[in-house]
Design a protein that fits this description.
about 325 residues; alpha/beta; Rossmann fold; 13 helices; 10 strands; disordered N terminus
Length: about 325
């Protein structure tokens, strides 16, 4: 299936920035965040619980659309050869994994989420959408994990990289089982994969990092670094600064600088390029691409124009 036609430069981000910063109605978004007098009692597990409730509430699968544009934005996913491995972090209902599986018949996708119910629904959606191709389902493997709290399971990390990581005591890679309760055994031999069993060629962080509390982001990105093979790539897409969604939040929904919490307890952070650059460089990544995607769309119901801002990035683990 070909990637959908997609445009990412419908307007200039700098023009939107000037408009927002000159509008008094949006001034509170720009102010330094003043934490409440009482310390927050929110525990890390509360963030996972909020997203679990979110996915259960939207379990029909209609809330998300298949992200077919990914194959155009990240053609590396299609061009890589046999036994390529992708780790999809925060897979939700499979809207990212599905076009990847369809676009490359040799690729294997490991998909994690903090909700076991969500993973079950993702498996159902992949099964239903690819019923004519039995090989697709056998290349989709799920496991329940909140990478920002417990890290990734040991079998994901390349053995060589993991040993070096543990020697430096920088890894929090953990033992996490698949959703079916067993540890996964790779089907490709070390000779076929070009590396020891376990390492992944790609990590996709698609609208996932923004849901992680900002203070846990550096550790979360280091976890992604730890499971990549040398030369592997992390493909990133998330909410950008001054996106329409950000401007809809009220002042009392701020829980940090450029960080907000919805009424259901789910979080959203809005990134500028410098923040992303610092986070990924701090984890050891090499920046390949980093830019704003500015897309103008029209709400069919009220014919209102919406200006969406996302951050697109590609980062590589050094050889």
């Amino acid at each position: 299936m070909e990637a959908a036609e997609y445009f990412s430069k419908d307007f200039e981000w700098e023009e939107l920035k000037a408009e927002v910063e000159n509008d008094s109605a949006f001034r509170f978004h720009l102010l330094p965040f003043q934490p409440p007098n009482r310390p927050s009692q929110t525990a890390p597990e509360d963030d996972s619980a909020a997203w679990k409730r979110f996915h259960i509430r939207h379990s029909s699968g209609k809330f998300f659309k298949e992200r077919r544009y990914l194959l155009k934005e990240f053609p590396e996913l299609v061009s890589r050869g046999e036994c390529s491995k992708v780790l999809e972090v925060g897979c939700g209902n499979g809207s990212t994994a599905l076009p990847i599986l369809r676009g490359n018949e040799h690729i294997i996708v490991y998909a994690c989420d903090c909700s076991s119910e969500t993973l079950e629904r993702a498996e159902e959606i992949i099964d239903a959408a690819t019923s004519a191709s039995a090989s697709v389902r056998h290349r989709f493997h799920t496991f329940c994990c909140d990478f920002s709290i417990v890290g990734f399971p040991k079998w994901l990390a390349c053995h060589t990289c993991r040993e070096a990581f543990l020697q430096k005591q920088q890894s929090c890679v953990s033992d996490v089982k698949e959703s079916n309760g067993s540890y996964f055994n790779d089907s490709c031999s070390p000779e076929e994969s070009g590396c020891c069993i376990g390492g992944v060629d790609f990590v996709t962080l698609i609208f996932t990092l923004s849901a992680v509390p900002f203070q846990r982001m550096p550790t979360s990105i280091k976890e992604c670094f730890s499971v990549l093979k040398p030369g592997g790539m992390l493909l990133f897409r998330d909410y950008g600064l001054y996106d329409m969604t950000m401007l809809r939040f009220e002042s009392d929904q701020r829980v940090g600088f450029r960080e907000y919490m919805r009424s259901d307890g789910t979080r959203s952070y809005f990134f500028c390029l410098d923040t992303i650059r610092d986070l990924f460089a701090g984890a050891g990544f090499i920046e390949l691409e980093l830019e704003y995607c500015c897309v103008k769309s029209v709400n069919r119901r009220n014919q209102k124009s919406m200006r969406r801002v996302w951050v697109h990035g590609k980062f590589q683990k050094p050889m």
